[in-house]
Amino acid sequence: MKIIVAIVLSFFVLFSARGADPKTNWANNCMQCHGPDGSANTSMGKALNAKDLTNAQIQSSFTDAEAAAAIKDGVTKDGMTKMIAFGGKLSDDEIKALVAYVRTLKK
């Protein structure tokens, strides 16, 4: 019986530690500013002048490493926070998957 409980707990820990998929992370963390499609056509996105991530030219203006750093560390400009940091909330693997998801938004 103890072995079965240990196995069940191991699976629970393994699957709960994986984190959310990129679409869920997008919906929970990014959509308020960047919108469901990445166009930043939201009131918050307009107020913060968020990047339109559907625009191929804008997407080509940053590397995956730069995008990951922005997600992890946040973005400030002229002393104003333009994007909060998600490094304390998302794992490095979740951030990497989120960057890959952002790349799919380009039209």
Describe this structure in words.
The chain has 107 residues and is mostly helical. The protein has a single domain, classed as Cytochrome c-like domain (Cytochrome Bc1 Complex, Chain D, domain 2), CATH 1.10.760.10. The protein has 6 helices and 2 strands. The chain has helices spanning 2-17, 22-34, 43-48, 56-59, 64-73, 92-103, and strands at 75-77, 80-83. The chain has a two-stranded antiparallel sheet. Residues 5-17 have low confidence and may be disordered.
Beta content: 5-15%
Poorly predicted runs are 5-17
Number of helices: 6
The overall number of domains is: 1
List SSEs in N-to-C order.
HHHHHEEH
Query: For this structure, what is the CATH homologous superfamily?
Result: Cytochrome c-like domain
Strand and helix map with partners:
Blueprint: H1 2-17, H2 22-34, H3 43-48, H4 56-59, H5 64-73, E1 75-77, E2 80-83, H6 92-103
Antiparallel strand pairs: 1-2
Helix pairs in contact: 2-6, 5-6
